[in-house]
Every structure is written in C-alpha cells, then in structure tokens.
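ok so i was messing around last nite and threw this chain in just to see what happens. nothing serious, just curious
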Amino acid sequence: MLRTTIHTLAAAVMALTACIPAQADVISPLLTRSVPPGCPIETTPAHDTRLKTQAAQATSYQITVSVMLDNTRGQEVQNVLAISADPNAPKMYQASQSGSIFTINAEAGVYDVVVYIKSDNENLGIFLFEEDVELSGNKRIMLNQRNAKISTEIGRMSPSGIELTLPATGDPGNCSIADHLLVLRHNDFGTILMDETAAFRKSCTRISTNLIPKRYSLTRMDAFSWEQGPVFMVIPVDLEKEYNGPAENGWHTASAKFSQTPMSEAWAATQTPPAFAMTGYLVAADKQCCAYIGMGNYNHEFPTDRCYYWTPEGYDGTYEFYPVLRDGLVVMADASVSSMPYRLTPDGLMPSGLNLVCSASLMLNGDPFPDEGHPRFSVPAPEEAQLANAVPALVCIPSSSDRDAWDNGFQYGFTGRYGEELGIDSYNFTDELSEAELEQIGGYHRTVSVACDGKEICSAPGDFVKWLEWGNGETYTMQMEMSNVLIDGNIPGVNKAALSYKSADGYIPTVTALQFRDGDKITDRFDNSSKAYLEITAATFSFNGMKKFNFKAPTAVRAEYAPHGSSEFSALQVTEIPEYFYLPGYGNYYTAALDQINRGSDDKWYDLRITVEGADGAVQTQTLSPAFRLEDWTNSVEMTAADSSKCDVYSVDGRVIARGAEGVGALNLDPGIYIVKEGGKARKIRVD
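result:
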C-alpha cells in the first residue's frame, strides 16, 4: 500500500521558502513514518499536519509507472512522485496505486519521476529516478530496483570511534533504538520528501539509486539512544562516495547538571535499573521547526544529561537537530526537567536562546528560527550550574482544546534560571500516573485553584487538564502554590502565584523568563553589588487559532524584594531595555539593579515578588521564596588613578551609555542606576 497518510504523531508539514523563486508557490513536502508497535518514540507536530500537494486543475495527462521489486528482499514502494523540472514552476503530484502499477495525473510539462523503496526490513533505501519526462500525452514508464547499482554506506560511528549497534540475536548492542530521517531535497523547491523510520534492530545502513540526480540531494538525520548518551548525526549523502558518515573528528558534546527535586528523588527510589529515560529534540529544515521528538530506550542505561552531535566540517546547517538535555525522571515525555534546546554553532553546542516553556510554537509562531538566539539566554551556563536548583518562574499562556478557537482557558509551566523547563511541575505531569504511583512520590507538591466569575471550576492539580470545562464567564482567576524545590539539597523553595484575566480581552500576562546575573555570569549568589542585577522577560499573549498566538507588551512590570520569609516587601526600580526585545516568545526585557537593596546585617536569602499587568485589570503576580542570596555585600567600587574631566557611563548590565562625556548632567539620562567611571574612579549614581 502506498504510504501517503500522515499519522497523528508524524512530523508536521513545513512551510519551506528557501531557494524558491519569489513568484512561485511553495511545495509542501510529503512526510511518511514507520514506527514499530510499542516503540518509545513520540512526535509532536510543530505545525498543521494536513497533507498539501498540488492538484492538477488544467488539462492533465497520465503517467503510468510500473515498479519492478525483488520480492525475496521484502521490498515495498513508499512513494511515487512527479516533480516539475522547471525551476520557475514548482509542481508535485503523488501517484495512486493499484498492485504494482502507480498512476499520476499531471498537467502538461516536463517532470522528474521519483520512486522511493524500502527494503530488507528497512535496512536499505532505494531511489529510482526517471528525469526530464516530457508530458504532452499519456506516458508509460518502467523502473526496476535491479538498476539501483549506485550505492553508498551510511556510517554509524560513535563519538568513541566504535560502531553504534542495535540489539541482535545474542548481542544486546550498545544502543536500544534509533530514529532515522531520510530527506530528499530539490535544488530549487526545497524539501520534497521526509521519511522517518524508528528501528529496534536493523538500521538503514545503505542507500542505492539508479543514477546521480541532477536536481536533488539526499540527507540522513540519525538519532541513537547510545548507552553513553543520545547521539545526533546530520549526514549529507554524496552518492559518489562509498561511505557517508561521521569521522573520528568533528564531534561536539554538551552536558548539564540537574538537581533532584523532592518528587524526582522519590520517583527514582521506585525504579529498578536500567531505568527508562527519554531524550528530546527539535528537528529543523531551512530554519523551520518540523517537529519535536521524544526518544526513549529499552534495556540500556541511557544518560540524558549529555549528548553528542556530528556534522561534516563546514556544513551549511540546512537540516539541524536541537537536542534537549534532561534529568533522570521520566513518567512521560514532559515529566522531566529539560534544558533549553541546544544548537550547533561555530563555537560548538550552545543554548539556543529559545523559550519553549508551555508551547514550542509560542516562541516562533510558525516563523523560521533566527540566526542567533536571544543574546541574554544563549550563553553557556557556568560550569558549576545546577538546573532546577532554584525556585522557578511561572509561565502562563492561553490554551484551547480546539485547534481553531479559544475556550477561555490557559496552561502553565515553570522555567528555571538557565531556561530549563520544569515539566515535572507542569499541569500534564500526572497524565499517566496512577493514584498509587502519585502517593509514592508524596503527591503533587503543589496546589491549584481556578475560578470562573468567582465560582471554582478546578480545585486540585489532577483536575487541571487540557479538556477542563472553562465555561463562558467574564473573569478568570487562579491561585497556585508550587513547593517541589529543595535548594542546595536542604532549603525548601516555594512559588506562590495568582493570575487574573478577562475572557473578552483574551490576553494573559505572564513572566516568560527570569534570571540573575553578576556581570555576564548567571548566578543567584552575590558578594558584590557592582554588577548584580535581576533580568526579566514578560509579555501578554492571546490565542489565535492553530496553536498560534498574538502578542502585546505588558502595561507594567514590577519587582519587589523582602528578606526571606518576611512580608515587608520593598520596590526595586525596573527599567525596560527595548533593544533586548527578541521575538514574542520572550516578550519585553526588563532589568533591575540589586544594589538598591537595603540589606540587614543578618539577611542572606531574599524573596522576590514579580507583577506583570495587562489590559483591563489582567495581572499575574508570583513570589519566589527564596529567590537569591547576598553574601558579603558592598555598595560601591573605588579605583585609584589620576582624575579626569571626562567620564564614561555604563548601565548596570555593562552596556556602554557614553564615552568621554563632559559630565553626567549633560547626558539627559533616563531614570535608573548607572556606573560612572571618571579618571580612575568608578561609582554608582541614581537618576530619578
């Protein structure tokens, strides 16, 4: 049977625009997927998964394609396509099947006919091409797999130089599962075909064809659940080479340290080795997000707090993985602490600077990935950093059980200091937990109450589900307390939050990221005031159908601090920095200098209260307790050198405001805190 159906979990159709003439329409690629039953791989679409191929509307003719297979090798035709050979007329037609005969109805023109075959239990991929077929009447074509004599091996070398192997009879291998994406790309029209195969035993290790195509290229994207961590390889296929695959050089790696939470520690105690674990990754083509994939393991230890990545030196990045690192807790794909996705850069694997908390589509809204991530969130974490070792910030966005219409609801998640997503505390954590399992880990470690026009519609975390009946009220409110945090293994942490919004307005205000910095170093421990500051991103979002969102800036963002456990909060002066706006997924950027704090002699830990306001009384307030720590605190910096009549002025986050100014008063500075260097002395000033 010709595989044309896109399964519910299949990778999504991509809006590909690169390399297509401005006057041409976009060809949406065909997407196929074969996954063995029970396979621990799941795919979340990034966009609409409905198949969109161009239909013949003008006078059409018929191409009849006969495909000769080797029935002794389990071969099966996956797709038969006719693709325009005119670079200014992108057209693609897919065949219907009757036995071994495939029929294509297409407008008059010149086409390439492409046949894709899987073979040998999917261990071999075959492409057969008939190029420059002139269609001015009905046409018959015969293609035989026997003519696919041009062949190349797809390598499976691990970072340690040994072969990546799946289980076989009597051999457990060193990987438990693999996910292969084979991509056919047209030089002018972009991606034409994307075929995903999950493999338990045999990997597709060979690609064969009957000719070197003039207008097409092939790429293999492989992910392996290796016993030393997930391995990702992007392999451009040169059909003229006997071998395509990784070499000993060119490998990149990333790792992260994760703190245990009370829930994850309790869950780990219930597991027997080898513990099931799942890694995650985004797949991108032409800087467009295709899908988010989770890949698990069988019968192997599978550390997910590190990953390995290989592409050829100088590769142009047309196809990319964005790996996600995770802690050891997995009840389902989302029930983990997950790092910000990483991206391969000229400097190696780096945090992508993308905010995917709550919704992968929120960050980009269907737009291409930017060349670089948010400048404040795409720097490596300090070597000593531990993800989930702090009270996270709450993120709330509109949500709907209907893909096209908002039903007044919202969803929530938590984001940590380094952009990590605390899925363990998200609303969907308990989807697959029984009551007994929930009791084993000490319950939810959070409370949730949601009301519609003052009437409670949700009173417990387990009742907060995506199909919650939100009703048709005017005002919605939420109260939440999340206590699944143990800082440094012994300091309980809590986030207490409230949310209120109007259904008529539809915009929900929220923090989208929160971190502290000592200069450029991300930290929440300080022993000096000179470069200590808080940075927040915040936005208001409304649901726009098809999992897309509208964005507006908050009407106000406020920050307050108090000694840990105290109710005596004092305001911090918050300043917006417009040039740090970076895509709606983060929203607007705000900063507050911490040298405003009047520290008591015995105070160390401090609580932080953040308020984000929207229109018509919409507001989100959350208190992180504790949020940061002040050690030996000094409020000024003195440097000795000769005096000068000129001065340099900097913001508290190190940006240059002015150099060689004739005094600060002449600069007409906005209200805020500044560092002034004059002669050899540095001092802080406040402008009201």
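not much to say yet. The chain has a mean pLDDT of 86.
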